[in-house]
Amino acid sequence: EIVLTQSPGTLSLSPGERATLSCRASQSVSSSYLAWYQQKPGQAPRLLIYGASSRATGIPDRFSGSGSGTDFTLTISRLEPEDFAVYYCQQYGSSPQITFGPGTKVDIK
Amino acid sequence: QLQLQESGPGLVKPSETLSLTCTVSGGSISSSSYYWGWIRQPPGKGLEWIGSIYYSGSTYYNPSLKSRVTISVDTSKNQFSLKLSSVTAADTAVYYCARQTPHDYIFDYWGQGTLVTVSS
Fold first, then answer.
1. How many cross-chain Cβ pairs, A to B, lie less than 8 Å apart?
2. Alpha-carbon span B43 to B40, nearest angstrom
3. In this predicted model, what pLDDT tens digit does every residue of B70-117 receive, in sequence order?
4. Which of A53, A54, A98, A104 to mutate to test the interface with B (most CBs of B within 10 A)?
5. B46–A contact, CB cutoff 8 A
6. CB pair distance less than 8 Å for B106 and A103
7. Which residue of chain B has the CA closest to A96?
8. Mean pLDDT of chain B
């Protein structure tokens, strides 16, 4: 089973600042199978990024994804008030098996 | 616009079977090559994939839950269902159903989620 680790656990930033979130896998993950989701309190997760770097429909271009192998990054270039939420990475691997990271909470400083 | 809606009992007794149904509207569950999945989230914790089903009925499950999980599909009702047997308090969670894309296995449409509490 591929284990995903996300860091930091919590990121305290101000609106307008840049957020950099990390997702590290215990084994190499195909870039095609790495995604990021945003979840706000009381809501279902929302797909942000798939294929490590492709934005889902309707996602603003301040969100970008990058990385390969075992290290992936979600960047929010300038935080808007609605971006304060929890972010999860997700991978699909052989077996087949799907796993999520533990999440990074982005809160207001 | 595709919509998914979970339904089922909000309270289940320990050792019993949790049963949930996801009703899909705004599209046919069998008209496209998508998988349909279940994901859960214990209160205050992260997401855990439970399993997924193709409209034809082929399934794959999280190995950690496989012995207790059954996912089925009813194309005539545009629904798919989850059964989780021998539940304990550790199975208390918000359960989500979601559409899963066939090529990159991501979840692009989600239901709102339903809280299931396991308690006597």
1. 59
2. 10
3. 999 999 999 999 999 999 999 999 999 999 998 888 999 999 999 999
4. A98
5. yes
6. no
7. B60
8. 95
- The number of residues making up chain B comes to 120
Q: How many Å separate Cα A11 from the centre of its chain?
A: 13
- Selecting from A50, A56, A98 the residue whose C-beta is nearest the C-beta of B49 gives A98
**Residues of chain A with C-beta less than 8 angstroms from the C-beta of B103:** 32
Task: Provide the 8-state DSSP code for A2.
Answer: P
Task: For residue range A58-103, list pLDDT tens digits in order.
Answer: 999 999 999 999 999 999 999 999 999 999 999 987 767 899 999 9
Strands (E), chain A: 4-7, 10-13, 19-29, 34-39, 46-50, 54-55, 63-76, 86-93, 97-100, 104-108
